[in-house]
């Protein structure tokens, strides 16, 4: 043990505080900016404020109330005749009424996929209005949502459930099991309303994307990715449920000049053979992040509202301790002046449970390969870590190697080629396996 070891631990804690990428995903920008420019334009700003609150807001509120009255008067009639086409039109009409009440200017890029096979729409999540924006275009969606109270709870129980939407309580494990079965049943029938899922599981501030949970990618259905990007100079669509009720969020949007956003419909894709659900989810998230110009991170968004399970907390604590113990054991076996101080490295994907943030100066098993240098290095390292955590893939690979022990290298190459569509994916696959083998050799 050396003094530098303790300093390294202190540096690690300081880095975690100074480079807190997790909190940045949920920070809300100040919605009022006062500067010399706004002071000089004070009369114009005051005139705009009066117009927005005393002319735009009453008009938009009246429009939404009229649409709400029409919707709830027409809904029993539509349900009585059991006409699916009328019901879908009515849902789309109501979603469009919400958008008009916010002065929305939505630009849709590409054609919205109409797939006659089992499929799921997935999108990045900023607010509840994401669902309204997508359901107002061409055809509505069913969705999977956390149970809420207040206005959202009323709309969930009395409206959304009518089109096949599924509600659950995140804190109840039994709800999750039942939910997975209901999702499979809904997706298996292409005639049902297309299912829209937000795999992040929480609202993010539309500057980052966090971990896509793999549940939606395990249903043996095609994935239709959708990327949503809001222009915050007109209105900040991010809803932080801890600091703002949904009613205040709606009133805020109604008193802005406009809600401006871009929506990209990406090419539907099935899960390729040999690809795990975690890899598939990471691949879709990377594409959405790239199109919407969002920073791709691997943090688990559930940590925003729920602490990690005790088992995972213990594993995250024991991982660095075990790794540091290995460094000390190696130092005792081979004492050398150059090995006195272990180097500390903080993984950008600690949320994925990377158990090896400590490494000795000359242990290259945890170091990223040279080809990851560049503007996409963070994304590539995330891919390597996701591949490294895929236990199913490891089992398949080991079986393939054990079947042909005489030619391990050829089997490795054939296996990675089968799982990779391009050279970039093949490099990720090879790098993850090198790390996996080196960790176990040590």
Highlighted features:
442 residues, alpha/beta, Glycerol-3-phosphate (1)-acyltransferase, 2 domains, 7-stranded mixed sheet, two-stranded parallel sheet, 10% strand, glycerol-3-phosphate O-acyltransferase activity, lipid metabolism, phospholipid metabolism, acyltransferase
Walkthrough of the structure:
By secondary structure, the protein is an alpha/beta fold. The protein has two domains: 271 residues, Glycerol-3-phosphate (1)-acyltransferase (3-Layer(aba) Sandwich); 134 residues, no CATH class. 50% of the residues lie in helices and 10% in strands. The strands form three sheets. It has a seven-stranded mixed sheet with strand order 1-8-7-2-5-3-4, sandwiched between helices. It has a two-stranded parallel sheet with strand order 6-9. Strands 10-11 form a two-stranded antiparallel ribbon. The longest helix has 40 residues. It is globular. The protein starts with a helix and ends with a helix. About 7% of the residues have low confidence. Its main location: membrane. This is Phospholipid/glycerol acyltransferase domain-containing protein. One of its GO terms (cellular component) is endoplasmic reticulum.
